[in-house]
Design a protein that fits this description.
This is Alpha/beta hydrolase. One of its GO terms (molecular function) is hydrolase activity. There is one protein chain. The chain has 186 residues and is α/β, with parallel strands linked by helices. It has a single domain (4-184), classed as Alpha/Beta hydrolase fold, catalytic domain (Rossmann fold, 3-Layer(aba) Sandwich), CATH 3.40.50. Helices cover 33% and strands 16% of the residues. The chain contains five helices and six strands, in the order E-H-E-H-E-H-E-E-H-E-H. It has helices spanning 19-26, 43-55, 68-79, 134-144, 167-184; strands at residues 4-8, 30-32, 61-66, 85-91, 121-125, 147-150. A six-stranded parallel sheet has the order 2-1-3-4-5-6, with helices on both faces. Helix 3 (68-79) links the parallel strand 3 (61-66) and strand 4. Helix 2 (43-55) crosses helix 3 (68-79). It is globular and about 40 Å long. The two termini are 12 Å apart.
Amino acid sequence: MQHTILIVPGLGDSTEGHWQDNWLQHFPNTKKVVQDNWNQPQLKDWLHNLDTTIKAIEAPIVIVAHSLAVSLVMHWSQQNDTSKIAGALLVAPADVESPEHTPEEIWNFAPIPLDKLKYPSVVISSANDPYISIERAEFLAEKWESDFYNVGLRGHLNLASQLGLWEEGQAILAVLLSKLNTADNF
């Protein structure tokens, strides 16, 4: 079954050169959630734009969220019908509950929902991400019942990490898509 890959950027957007922007340009059947204010995010507004984008997509959706967008997806998943969501790649979640790790402008996304997701998911984090400890990322994955990948010392897996098309992330996404396609055949 053909899935739509939905790119969901975090604070500041995933601009040119970011792996999310590269994936958007590189892969077919890819769409992006656009926010009105990338630098002063308000959960209510971001939820509305995510929901509107999801409702406009007809095919099953695989979410690819980065940083603050992981909390956004978790809030959306708790409040909405997730039947259109086939799976999610949740990359470098930002710990919006930690003043030590995140800036004040994103604290309105706290608390991070801890409910088990109703769709298959993968959390990817780096051992030296300045916006979350690896232990906290693994804890979140456990609560959401997501598979967990520690990709080593790669920073926040953002533009500064210079990941290009991020082949490692593509390989993890391919594993998730393979699981989804297998499940579709039953």
